[in-house]
Amino acid sequence: MPWNQKRYPDSMKNLEPHIRAKAIEIANALIDEDYPDERAIPIAIAQAKKWAENGADDSVPSSLHIVSHLMGWAIRRANAQKASFVYHDLAKARDKAIAMAQKESVTIILHDEDGGIKDYIDFPKV
Length: 126
Hints:
alpha+beta, single chain
């Protein structure tokens, strides 16, 4: 069964989210190539860290966050200073984020009103 942002090996839990996402992507590809889990996981983590150190993550679209906002709910890219969109209704914010994430093949991270992470929605490349 492939790993995702909700279900991944314990050894990936302390990775930064963008590095963990890359490690999950690499590990899934290795598993598809019949690597055993005990080899795929450390290889994926090492390659994801190397990928991040080399600045490769700058060319990859970042995740989208749906966060509480004074005017309702905002869609914000990871590490962005300002929201891309703001909606009064959570459902509308979610619909817009889904359309964006599908187009860009990125993950949506849905936060609760207190800022905690409530859910992940993955849109892998097809």
